[in-house]
Automatic annotation (TrEMBL), chains A, B:
One of its GO terms (biological process) is anthranilate metabolic process. Its EC number is 1.14.13.9. It comes from Formosa maritima. It catalyses: L-kynurenine + NADPH + O2 + H(+) = 3-hydroxy-L-kynurenine + NADP(+) + H2O. It comes from the Bacteria. Residues 6-359 form the FAD-binding domain. Belongs to the aromatic-ring hydroxylase family. KMO subfamily. This is Kynurenine 3-monooxygenase. GO terms for molecular function: FAD binding; kynurenine 3-monooxygenase activity. Keywords: FAD, Flavoprotein, Monooxygenase, NADP, Oxidoreductase, Pyridine nucleotide biosynthesis.
Length: 470, 470
C-alpha cells in the first residue's frame, strides 16, 4: 500500500496518540482530531482516572515506538497488593514470586503528553484539539466534526479512518445506528460505580502510606483502592453499588453519612484523608461498563481500536495495556504487507478479538477477586502456593495473574484458559485436602505438588476440550 | 393493586396476545396495539417463520389460560430428529427415551389467531391493528403510535406499558437511546442467516417424507431442516453463512448455482422440492440474532417481555416456549400480590432473567450440535446411552435436551448447568474408554454406567462450584 495515504485518527487519548506516533513512524500522512483541549496546556483530568496500572504489554508497545527509556521515569513500581483489613491490619500480597515481575502506577496525563510530543515530532503527523467527532460516514470514509473554537461543523475526508475515541465512540455509534450491516454489539454495566478520591502527601511531601503497592480495602460488597503518584499523593477509588446495600452511592448524600461509612469500613484510610468529604462531593460518580462489538471494521474504510472497540472494567489493570497491545498487534499485521486495508483490518480483527474478549471477562472476574476473594482462606492459600511455585521454580509456573500481566507474548485468551484451569485445579486440590500446610512444604514436596497441579490443569483443559464437542 | 388499571400492550404476536388474554382473565383493562394488519383476515406470514416447535413450557402456559384442548388439534407431534446424510440415508434419533416426550410442529398463524380470538372474548381486552409503536416515553408511561389507516400519529397513555413487540422492540430502543439509566444491552448476530423454503404435499395431499419428525440435513458448515404442516407440506429452512465458504448466501445468485448446491449437499431434499428455485429467489434471507438486555423494566411504568426482552436463535425450538413461559412466570409473581408494579416487575426480572440468558446460550450450542455434532460418532454414542437411560430408568435420568424441553418445572438455567455437566461427564467417559459398546449393555451394566455418570456429573458441578470462588 502507498505510504502517502491519508489516515484520519479520531481521538488523541492514549491509544490514538500511540497509533498516530506509530503510523507517523511508518510514513503515513496522519491527521488526528481530539475533542478535548490539549492536555499539555489545560487541566482536563476530570472524569477519567488520574493514574493507571502499566505493565508488560504496555511496555512492549513502548519498546516498539522507542519510548521505553522515556517512560521509565514516569513509573512507580507496585510489587503487590497491600491488603487492609477492617481493623487496619495490612499484609503485602506480592503479584509474583519472581522479583522482576511487578506492575507500575503511571499518570495518564504525563504518559499521554509524552506520546503527543513524540507523535508531533513527525512532520507527517498533525494533531488538532477541540474537534469533536459527531458521526462517521463509513461508506464514504468521511467524518463529521464540530470545531469548538469556531463552533462550526466540517467534514474530514481520508483514505482510512481509525476511531480511537474511547468507550463512547462516535464511530461505533454510527455503525450501530447506520444499520447498513449486521453489527454485533454489547454494553454491560456493573451494579457498581466508582468515585475518585485522594490521599494527599504529608506536609513534608512524603507518601502517607507504603508507596510501592496497590492498596486494597476489600469489603466483599464494595472496595477502596489506592495507587501512588509521583508527587507523593495517592489516587484513591471507591467502588460501590449505586442503589443496593446499607451504604450506596444513592444514599451517601450527607457529610455525616460519608464519614460514618468510612469510619465503619475504612478507618485507617479515613485517617489519611482529611480531604475526604470535599473530594466525595466534588468528584463525579461514574459507571463501570464493558463494551464488545464486531465487526470492528467496515470494509477497508474504517477501524475501531482501543476502548472504542473493547472497553473493559478496570479491575485487571489492563485497559491501557490492552489498547497499547492493539497497536503492537496492528503493527504486526502491517508488517505482513497485505494488499489493501480491508485485508489488514480483517486479519487484525480475526487475530485480536478473541484476546480482547478474554481480557474483558478476566477484568470482571478480578472485580470479585479484589473485593472479596483476596480475604478468603482458600484464595490466600492458593496464592501462597503460587508464589512458592514462581519463586522456587521460576521457569516452570506462572499464575493466571502472571500469565495475563507479565507474559506479553502469550495472548489474553490463552492466559485466561490456562489460568482458569490452574485456579480450578489448585482450589479443588485444596478443598479435597490433596494439598495442605502450603506454607511449610519442603522443596521436594513443593515440586511434587507442582507436578500434580500441572497434571490436573492439563486434565481440566483436556476434559473441557472434549466436552466442547457437545 | 386495582384491577381496573389500564394496561397497554405493544405487539399482538404470540407473547402479546397470550399476555393480553391472561391479563384480561385477571380483570385488567387491556389495550393492545399491533403494527401489522389482523393476521386472521390478511396473509402476513412473510418475514417470520411459518411453523414453530411447541413443547412442554408452551403447553404449560396454554393450561394456565385454559387452552390446552383447543391447541391440540393444531399440533403435529415430532418424536425425534430424522437425520439425512449426504447419500440420502436416514436415521431417526428420538428426542427422548420416554415415549410420552416429544415436541410439536405448530403453525404460528393458527396459534396466534387462537390467542387473539380468546383474548377478544373478554370485553375488557381491546386489540387494534395497523398501529405501529414509534417510541415509548417510559417516564410519562405513554407511547407514540402511527396509525397506518389514517397515517396520523397519536399518543396512548396507560398505568403500565408492556412491550411484547419482538426482537426489534421500539420500547427497548427507547431505553437504549434515552440514556436515562444504565441500560445493559447486547445484540449478537451469527455469521449465518436463514431462508425459508418448502416441500409441498404430494398430488394426493400426502406428506412427501416422514411426517412425525424434525428433519435435519446437517453439513457441518450449514444445514437444512424441515418441519411438517397440517396441510401435508413441510416448511424447510436453510441455515447458511452470509459471506464465507464455497457456497454462501452472497454467492448463491443464480438458479444454476442454487441447484448445484442442493444437488451436491441435499440431493434427497432437492427431489422433494421442484419449487426450490422459485422459493429461493422469492423469499427473503434473514439474520439470526440474540438479544439480551437489563433492566427490562423502568420503575413501575414499563416492562419488556418475550423477544423484546430476550430474542434467541431458533435452534433449541424454545423461542416461543420461552416467551410463553414469561407469561406463566409473570402470572406467578402477580399471585404474590405485591403492592405495586415496580415490585412486581423487579421480582419478575430477578427470578426470570437468569433463565432467559441460559436458553439464549443453549440455543447457540444447539446450532453447532444440529449442523455438525449429530453426525459425530461420540455424540451419537452419548445420545444412544442417554436414550437407554431414559427408557430403562425413566425416573432417574433426563438428558440436557429433556431437561430443557420436557421438564417445564425446572428452570432453563438449572437445566443448562446440569445438562452440560452430564454431557461433559459422558463425553469424557467415552473418550477415556470408561464406557464402551453402549448399544449392548446389560441392564445391570447400564445401571452401573448410570451411577458412574451421576457421580461424575456431581463431581463436575462441585468442582465448578469450588472454582467459582476464583
Amino acid at each position: 500500500m502507498n505510504k502517502k495515504q491519508n489516515i484520519l485518527i479520531i481521538g488523541a487519548g492514549l491509544c490514538g496518540s500511540l497509533l498516530a506516533l506509530r503510523l507517523g513512524q511508518r510514513g503515513y500522512n496522519v491527521t488526528v482530531m481530539e475533542m478535548r483541549p490539549d492536555l499539555r496546556t489545560t487541566d482536563i483530568s476530570a472524569g477519567r482516572s488520574i493514574n493507571l496500572a502499566f505493565s508488560n504489554r504496555g511496555i512492549k508497545a513502548m519498546k516498539l515506538v522507542g519510548l521505553e527509556e522515556k517512560v521509565k521515569p514516569l513509573c512507580i513500581p507496585m510489587n503487590g497488593r497491600m491488603l487492609h483489613d477492617i481493623e487496619g491490619n495490612t499484609v503485602l500480597a506480592p503479584y509474583s514470586g519472581r522479583e522482576n515481575e511487578y506492575i507500575n502506577s503511571i499518570s495518564r496525563g504525563q504518559l499521554n503528553a509524552l506520546l503527543l510530543d513524540e507523535a508531533e515530532k513527525h512532520e507527517n503527523v498533525k494533531i488538532y484539539f477541540n474537534r469533536k467527532c459527531k458521526s462517521v460516514d463509513f461508506e464514504k470514509t468521511t467524518a463529521l466534526f464540530k470545531d469548538y473554537n469556531s463552533n462550526k461543523e466540517f467534514i474530514e475526508d481520508a483514505d482510512a479512518i481509525f476511531a480511537t475515541d474511547g468507550a463512547g465512540s462516535a464511530m461505533r455509534q454510527s455503525y450501530y445506528l447506520g444499520k447498513k450491516f449486521l453489527f454485533s454489539f454489547s454494553q454491560d454495566y456493573l451494579t457498581h460505580g466508582y468515585k475518585e478520591l485522594s490521599i494527599l502527601p504529608s506536609e513534608n511531601g512524603d507518601y502517607k502510606t507504603y508507596k510501592n503497592a496497590l492498596h486494597i480495602w476489600g469489603r466483599e460488597a464494595f472496595m477502596l483502592i489506592a495507587l501512588p503518584n509521583l508527587d507523593g499523593s495517592f489516587t484513591v477509588t471507591l467502588f460501590l453499588n449505586f442503589n443496593e446495600g446499607e451504604y450506596n452511592f444513592n444514599n451517601l448524600t450527607t457529610k455525616e453519612r460519608v464519614i460514618e461509612f468510612f469510619e465503619k469500613y475504612f478507618k485507617d484510610a479515613l485517617e489519611l484523608m482529611p480531604n475526604l468529604v470535599d473530594d466525595f462531593f466534588e468528584n463525579p460518580t461514574s459507571p463501570l461498563g464493558t463494551v464488545k462489538c464486531s465487526p470492528w471494521h467496515y470494509k477497508g474504510n474504517t477501524l475501531l481500536m482501543g476502548d472504542a472497540a473493547h472497553a473493559i472494567v478496570p479491575f485487571y489493570g489492563q485497559g491501557m495495556n490492552a489498547s497499547f497491545e492493539d497497536v503492537t498487534e496492528f503493527d504486526k499485521v502491517l508488517d505482513e504487507k497485505h494488499k489493501d486495508w480491508e485485508t489488514v483490518f480483517k486479519q487484525y480483527e480475526e487475530s485480536r478479538k478473541k484476546d480482547t474478549d478474554a481480557i474483558a471477562d478476566l477484568a470482571i472476574d478480578n472485580f470479585h477477586e479484589m473485593k472479596g476473594h483476596v480475604n478468603h482462606a482458600n484464595f490466600r492459600e492458593k496464592r501462597s502456593l503460587e508464589m512458592a511455585f514462581e519463586k522456587t521454580f521460576p521457569y516452570e509456573y506462572s499464575s493466571k495473574y502472571s500469565l495475563v500481566t507479565f507474559n506479553e507474548n502469550i495472548g489474553y485468551r490463552e492466559a485466561m484458559l490456562r489460568g482458569r484451569a490452574q485456579d480450578k485445579a489448585i482450589l479443588n486440590m485444596l478443598a479435597d485436602g490433596d494439598i495442605s500446610d502450603v506454607n511449610n512444604l519442603t522443596n521436594e514436596a513443593l515440586k511434587n505438588t507442582l507436578e500434580k497441579v500441572k497434571a490436573a490443569t492439563e486434565a481440566i483443559l483436556e476434559d473441557d476440550k472434549i466436552a466442547g464437542l457437545k
